[in-house]
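Incident log, entry 3
Record: ELMO3 protein (719 residues)
Problem: checksum mismatch between cached and fresh output.
Input:
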Amino acid sequence: MPPPKDVVKIAIQMVGAIPQLIELQQTKPLSAVLKDVCDAWSLPNAEHYALQYVDGRQTYITESNRREIKNGSILRLTTSPDQEAERLYSGIQSKNVDVKTDSLKKLASLSQDVTFAQEFISRNGLKQIYSIVEEGNDTGEMLAHTLKAFTELMEHDFVSWENLSTVFIKKIVSYVNMNAVDASIQQLSLSILENMVPTSRLLFELVKKEVTLDRLLTHLQMTNAQLQLKAMALLIALLLTATDAERRDMMDYLREKNIRQFIHKNIIHSSEPLGDEMAHYLYVLQSVSLNLCEHRMRTSMDPYSQEQRELLQSLRQTAFESESEAPASNFSTERRRSLCAKEFRKLGFMNNGNPAEDLRRAPPGLLALDSMVYFSRNTPNAYSRFVLENSSREDKHECPFARSSIQLTLILCEILHVGEPCSETAQAFYPMFFGQDHFFEELFCICIQLVNKTWKEMRATQEDFDKVMQVVREQITRTLALKPTSLELFKTRVNALNYSEILKLRQTERLHQEETLAVPVLELRERLKPELLELIQQQRLLHLCEGTLFRKISSRRRQDKLWYCRLSPNHKVLHYGDVEEGVESPPIESLTEKIPVADMKMLLVGKECPHTKEKSSGKQNKDVLELAFSIVHDVEEYCLNFVAPTRYEFCLWTDGLNVLLGKEMTSERTQTDLDVLLSMELKLRLLDLENVSIPDTPPPIPKPPSNLNFCYDFSHAEQ
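Fresh output:
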């Protein structure tokens, strides 16, 4: 007979004693449980003891978390958090260096536990840590333990970062700015400053002033990968917290210092594989850089602005004034105005009398004008060829340069997500972005020439403008999906993907769609579905058995602890536990926490998850909502919360968990995989029917013949 729900069988250890095997009554007060355990070992003062997990993070058992104890858990009888906090509070003030160092080391370990942290902070323990940092000149092991303990204590959000003294902050800054300091201390100091920056404007300004961009670039150029990562994390935190003007100045300075070339050569093309954290920071750096275009993109042209009118006139002058025999200044005002209007019409402006009207639409706003001017100044030959080639045509097949440029700028802004907030989890950056200065403008130069090329291939007229731009968008997105490593490679590939290739791809996709719509084929699809869905289910469960590395996302920052979760080979238990950075696939034995599949009640996704309700709503968290899911187990109050690293992982995990719960797989990936498998299976089965049209209705079955009497009669054989 299974034990009652409120009883769990556990083992309790103590150094130098035989372990106790007890049945823990969850309804019994924890103080009474401790009294029984202490009495069994003849220990006085039960209130001075506490229970703690042996494995994993060695969390203290409290009334609030005791329901998480599972059958078979191994606990340890240890000093209570308040006694331990008191002992370590005294230990870190000791005059004996060894005692002080050991106390700080233990403090750094125990501070991960919220119960202990609360007890230690309530004794004004942080003040002692401040003193050690502010007054001490040690930069060795003792300081490393002190900074680690401080980081863990601040992680619990009991104390505001704004309470830190200027002396303490400047001391942390000094460790970042000093050369002769242990790398582990510099990593911890960079991490502390990174956490500090987003919390208040004053702290941001202080850190920005004290830690120069030059110093961060020096750390970025170190061979120590962890130091490099922490420096990048602080740089990104500063960029994200800065105002638009400050961010622009910082990016201009970084451009002067050739950070792009360094990242392209030493990080992206390093011999070491790029970690998830660094990939995310490169994505943010790319996003921040592209978003510098947002202001121009959202600003309409002002027809009364002298500067903007001059830029507009420069387009006309670059294209036409070199070919005109007489300078326009010799003409009358009326003649000159008429000539300008004619030339603006040749340039492809729809409103040639007042071309500024074409640029009133925002987005793309002034960014379209900037892109056209960049093209005309940096590739004047290609610009002149484009304009003159089309302005001299009389067969209505001329490609309008200005109209195409305005629409192309808008397309590029949409594809590159210009003006959108940075995702908290995305890692998708374009390697070619870091291989080129003025990335957006250079990409525009390639793509506007692609527009002209595609226009000619389609033999398009003005009525076909939208169709051409749709094809160009497809050419760009299909090529970017291949992740070219340089703009030269992008140019080669996008030009190879000409209009006829796009037509072939569309034709293939359309034929595939048409052949799968015949009634007999649809019936065959339905028959094949159950078998293929079972195959997908097996794949999902195999993926869960392999496991995935997840990242805990706190309310203040993205960078946080890593943890791993995997399903046992017999599909009966989910194992999970914290892991260190760089661990690829930890053995299942090292994952100390577990949830029996039988105890899983339901799966929550998106806004339903408790950890998404805790976070503030807004655009910044949209990506977290799309990747969040939770497993409700035992009773509804207890959830294991996940934020998947990618949408692909989200789909595989939610599908796998639904299979374990006996429910249907609901992710979009299931439909995609099913369509691919059905397509392959149908093609294999219909190979013999190639070029044979399949009728919508089956042929009629003929009537049986009149001489259908050749059946053997067994009744006569028995006689």
